[in-house]
Amino acid sequence: QVLSHNLCTVLNVPHDPVALEEHFRDDDEGPVSNQGYMPYLNKFILEKVQGNFDKVEFNRMCWTLCAKKNLSKSPLLISDEDAFKVWVIFNFLSEDKYPLIIVPEEIEYLLKKITEAMGAGWHQEQFDHYKIALNTSREGLSAWELIDLIGSGQFSKGMDRQTVSMAINEVFNELILDVLKQGYMLKKGHKRKNWMERWFVLKPNIISYYVSEDLKDKKGDIILDGNCCVEALPDKDGKKCLFLIKCQDKTFEISASDKKKKQEWIQAIQSTVNLLRAGSPPPHKEARQKRKELRQKLLAEQEELERQMKELQAANENKQKELETVRKQLEAAAARAAEEEKKRLQTQVELQDRFSLELEREKMVRQKMEEQVAQKSSELEQYLQRVRELEEMYKQLQEALEDEKQARQDEETVRKLQARLLEEETAKRAELEKWHLQQQQTIQMTEAEKQELENQRMMKEQALQVAMEQLKQLELERKEALEQYEEVKKKLETAANNTKSWKDKVAHHEGLIRLIEPGSKNPHLITNWGPAAFTEAELEERQRSWKGKKATSE
């Protein structure tokens, strides 16, 4: 009941004790567990939250519930208030899954922010060693481990407690309270027009100003939206570093301590207005979302890489199985070959035994013959001669057997070679037949193309002969036309001379009297050989002749 009442008070939700009693009326099994309390919390408290509550007070209540049980008992270089702020920052930067942890990338981001706020240098190599040690054991840190890490002073060596506390407070204001910028400036009043020093706090949609930086006495707010603008003003009335904030209903004149502060405030306010116009979240929230998306992208790529590695491993295992199968097949083939060799050797031994038996039999015959020789001295020479012949035959027989054995081995080798050569010959014959067919087809196509080219050549030669004959005919006609032109030219020169002499005589006798001649009624004809070289009838006759020759050639 106390927990529910406090939660409702902090979250500005009306508390209903009757609903609490009704919900847990049938639960007589002792204390309520987390799983047992969650349904009531979701249904009767969290679903009624409107968002108009103090998040810092809510975090402070949650801190009160869990800090005593989980906070380390070892002495830390930070106060309980700083530990609370680190805990709240952890909840903001942690991953969205339970149990909550903060990954090494976010730890690096937080430690960099605190180090920059302290004005110290960042030691990347030191953090890399810490990150390697951390990755070998787990994925990230819990809230209490993060507090121990910052409170141990491992990354803030040489800094006093006050500097570390101020740095944690600055990071807390930026990440949790959305404070984009804060500081003292002078503000001109709207009624009295006097200048008063105020502590300004810039947030994503509002600028609040207080009497002092303890934020206890709030004097007013400047509501920011996309229609606001900020302008620099020239110095006036003894005030320097002036700038103006224009809103829909009011205008605020502010004086910064120096030009650098003035420019920083103008840029910060203008960036805030631009974010409001674009509908973008604060920079630190947008950066956190981008870092989270980048981690998710890298995780997806890593999972895809692991999947591909598993596929490659499975393919490799399949290849190993196939190689093992091939190896077993080779071993089986080797065993069959060994068995065949064993049978061949056994056959050879049997043949040797048979030959040995035959030799033994021959020896027995020989002994009998020697006994007969001893008995029959008269046939001794014949018998000895026969024995020599038999021994010779025996040697020949052994040689023949050895030759037969070698011949069989050679025959086996030649048989295998002939079989291989026969297979190669068959393959080559098939390939040669294929090439022969392709060559015949190519020859047929070449013959057809050749015949067609020959026909075209004959046609072109005939056309060339016709053209040559026409050219010769035209040449003869041109020569005839030139001869006619020369004759006409001579006639014209003779006529011109006669006319000139006649004109001279007339002018001599008649003085200035000018001879006027009538002009020709027919138009002058111009040809390639001069004006009026041919008559109209001659031209028409030549034109009909040319057209007839052209039709004949076509």
From TrEMBL:
Keyword Nucleus among UniProt keywords: yes
Localization in the cell: Cell membrane; Cell projection, Lamellipodium; Cytoplasm; Nucleus
Subunit architecture: The SWAP complex consists of NPM1, NCL, PARP1 and SWAP70.
Organism: Tychaedon coryphoeus
Keyword Nucleotidyltransferase: no
Pfam families: EF-hand_SWAP70_N, PH
Protein name per Swiss-Prot or TrEMBL: Switch-associated protein 70
Function of the molecule: Phosphatidylinositol 3,4,5-trisphosphate-dependent guanine nucleotide exchange factor (GEF) which, independently of RAS, transduces signals from tyrosine kinase receptors to RAC. It also mediates signaling of membrane ruffling. Regulates the actin cytoskeleton as an effector or adapter protein in response to agonist stimulated phosphatidylinositol (3,4)-bisphosphate production and cell protrusion.
Species classification: Eukaryota, Metazoa, Chordata, Craniata, Vertebrata
Gene of this entry: Swap70
PANTHER family in alphabetical order: SWAP-70 RECOMBINASE (PTHR14383), SWITCH-ASSOCIATED PROTEIN 70 (PTHR14383:SF6)
Primary location: membrane
Family annotation (SMART domains): PH
One Gene Ontology CC term in the entry: cytoplasm
